[in-house]
Structure formats: C-alpha cells, structure tokens
Amino acid sequence: WLIICGERTDIPSSDHPDTPNSGDLPEIPYTPGVEACELVMLAAVRQDVAEIPEAERDPYYDYYDNDPDFTLPGDTPHSFLKLATPLEYTYKRDTVKIYGNVLKATHGETREEVLGSGDGSQRFQTFKLRQPPLTFVSAPTPSGIQSTLEVRVNQVAWHEVTSLGKVGPRDRSFTTRQDNEGNTTIIFGDGQRGLRLPTGLENIRAKYRSGIGQGGNVKAEQISLLGSRPLGVQSVINPLPASGGADAESRDQARLNAPLAVMALDRLVSLQDYEDFARTFAGIGKASAVQLSDGRREVIHLTIAGEDDIPITPTSDLYRNLKQALQTFGSPNRWVQIAIRDLMVLIVAAKVRLQPDYDWEFVGPVVKATLLETFSFQRRALGQDVQSSEVLAAIHSVPGVDSVDLDVLTSIAESEVVEVSDESDQATWLSKLAAIAEAESGSPPPLRLDVELGRPQGRSSLLPAQLAILSPDVPDALKLEVLTP
Fold it and tell me: Which residues are CB-neighbours of 97 under 8 A, at least 6 positions away?
C-alpha cells in the first residue's frame, strides 16, 4: 500500500477522550474530497478490551446502530466516515489518524514497445519481449498468477491462451513461452490453430510490466520516490511492508510441481487435493492439510508457507486469492481454514574433533554450510520432526570430521528472535542465547524435537503446522567449536 502526499486527519477527543474506537469512526473535521468507496488507511494505538455483553453496552459507544444526526440546528459542516467492514482491533481515540490518498501497488515497471511487423505468409510467427522478466501478479486462478502482458495487432487486442491447439482458425490468440533466463517469447497461430498475423508495418505492439521476485518484498517506509511525479504530488511512502513477491519457479521446482498440478484437475474433493492445489499455487512453497473440528463443524485446516519462506499476511493478495481459488474450485460443502506456518528457529551448539592433518579454518565453514543446507527451508517439511541423529550425520558427512559432541538442540519461536540492528540488540540476543544454552547444558540434548502438524487447541481454536529450520539470518543460532586433541 502507498500513501501519496499523505493527508492526515486526527480524530478529536471531544467529550470522551478515553473512548475506544472499535466500529465506525465518530465524526471528523470537515474534509472535502473524500468520496464513497475510497481507500483510506487508519493508524492508532491498540487498546483491546474485554467483550461487553450486548445488554450492558452504552448506547453512546454503539457506532453500528446509531447513525449520526445530520439535522442539528445551527451545526457546522462535518465529515462522517463509515467503514465498509468493522475494525480488526480496538484503538485509543486520541491516537487514531486517518490517511487519505491511499492506493494499492504491486511490483513491476510498465513497458510499451513495438514488437515488429506481421507477415501473413508466415506460420507461428514469434516475437521476444525486450525488457524481461515479465511480471505476473497474484490471481484467483488454478495457477495462482495472471500475466500483465497485453498484445495489440493493428490496435485490436489479441488474447493469450495456454495452448494454440485449443483455439480455432479465426481466433485472435497467442501463447507465450518462458526460458530459463526469464525471456518471454510470444507465438501466434498458423491459420488453423489460431489466426495468422495480418501483414503490416510495425503493427504488433505489446504493453506489459517488467520485474518480478522477492526484491518486491520491500520493508515498511522503504519506498520514497516515484518514477514520475504527477502535478501536485509532494511525497510518497509505503507505511506497511510488501508481501507475496516470489521468484520464478526453478527447473527443480517445476519438476516437483508438475505431477501435483494434474492430480486434482482443478476440482478439489479430497484432503490431498486441497494440499496439492495450494502447493502448486504461485507464491506458495509448502502446504499441509489436515481435517479438524473448530468446535462447530469439520474443517479442512490448511497451513501454508511462502516460496522460500517469503512473508504472507492475511491481508495480502496472495492469501486472499488462494482463499478465493479454494472456494471457486473446491467443494461447496467443505469449510476451509487457512493459516500461516508457525516457524521454529533451531538453536544448535556442537563441538567437533578433527582427524589429523585437517585444519578447522577450512573444515568449519563446510560443516556450517552443510548444516544450513540440511535444515534449510527447501529441505524441511511442515510437521517434520528434527532428529539429533540428523545433526550428527550431517556433521559426520564432512571430510575431516572425526567425532562430534552435540551440546544443544532446541528451538525458539520466530517472535522471540531479536532483530539485530545495533550493538544493543546484539548484546540482548547474545544474552538470550547464553540463557538458552545454560538451561540446556544440564541435560543431554533430546533425541528428537517434536514438530507438530495443524492441531486443535481447546474446543474452538486451531493451531497451524510448525516448520523447524536453521535460519542463516539468525546470528549465532548455530555455534560450532573445535576440540583440540
């Protein structure tokens, strides 16, 4: 989300400065230009309170049922903001701010180019885009993506299809092919499988967006410049981090996903169908489906993790499009609940004794790289337990290792990891690791760390599947020492 020249309106405290806002907002100062269905952004300090029974609610706070009175005599103009959906949390009134000029933004720079000239005598005429890679955006389709490519021939739009074998001789259609370098080739018909291109001079034009991948997952407030600045725009900022950007599918990933894509044939019936569909949905790296009860009915509880563990939020296009696609292609009689994976960050400490004539300066980095690869996101599955024997086997597989003493094998939740940005954060994180190591030092490491699949908690709450990995982004989570003879 972007805010263009952010217009901020503070909510006056009026006679009730401590009143929490939880539904429609009260009146705000007169703000001309705000129209219905316009995107706005709210920023405030949360003030969650216990749910109040319906019979005990003060009518003053019931913003849903009491519309403002517009007929007060002698009143001055006001603006009233009625939200399309209720707020997710409760906020302190005097901290609430409303931002206007909010728009939705996705990755990719718009390109327009002349592809070339049509030749009616040629079959399957091809053209290559000059500004790769072609941008695909998330969409509620079986593949999970939609191309941004638009092709016009003599100013008339032609339509992309998955295969020219499915179209007739009079259909204005084309298909595309991607190579390993990210180049896109456009292929037109032969007169029997799709219309041939009409002869003309530079009459084939394309409009598309260029740019794709995890580079689009920018942090909050990282965007501060516009490619072009329209008249009146002073500044731009993204108040929230971007999510859902994923790199193009690699050859190995395509080999793994190819059989899964044809298992359900876009008709989701069984539990495995839902898991396979989510796994092959663009932007999703891992998926696990289990059947559970939420206290009212049986549901398919689907846990997902982004490709290469990219961030996914319930408000992201990727999450919403997956949810919509599951509803479209799934059974109308089955309830689906989607959850984001629960990340377990592994903490490992080991002492390694080397064979004669080997130097730790060269062996140590190989041991570390081997462990990071063995317990990487790509190599671990949702709900896959971590065995201490796996750690020992990975270290012993490195040439030059004689023996290993595994001192610590444990994990912490992702929320407990301290993001190190300065020396103070570094000291805090190291002290936490030292406390963990001390707590684990009194007993031998466990033979196995249990990593759970989706499961119930209590009568009505469901927990997502867990994923245990050794993250290279967490400093000192892997501690290796060499034992001298």
Answer: 8, 9, 10, 11, 42, 43, 44
Domain co-membership, 456 together with 387: yes
Q: Which domain holds residue 355?
A: 343-482
- Pairing type for strands 20-21 and 91-92 reads antiparallel
> CA torsion, points 249, 251, 255, 260, in degrees to nearest 10?
10
Residue 352 and residue 448 share a domain = yes
What's the count of helices (H) and strands (E) in the chain, helices before strands? Answer: 6, 30
Residues near 95 by beta carbon (within 8 Å), at least 6 away in sequence: 44, 45
Same domain, 313 and 325: yes
Q: Among 171-185, 353-367, 424-438, which stretch is predicted with the lowest mean pLDDT? A: 424-438
- Name the packing angle between helices 317-329 and 271-280 (round to 10°): 140
39 vs 31: CA distance, rounded Å: 15
Asked if 172 and 197 sit in the same domain, the reply is yes
d(CA 445, CA 439): 11
373 and 350 belong to one structural domain:
yes
- Concatenating the DSSP letter of every residue in 389-435 gives HHHHHHHHTSTTEEEEEEEEEEEEEGGGPPP--SHHHHHHHHHHHHH
Burial of 281 (0-12, 13-18, 19+ CB in 10 A): buried
Which of 128-137, 228-237, 421-430 is most confident?
A: 128-137
* Model pLDDT, residue 57: 42
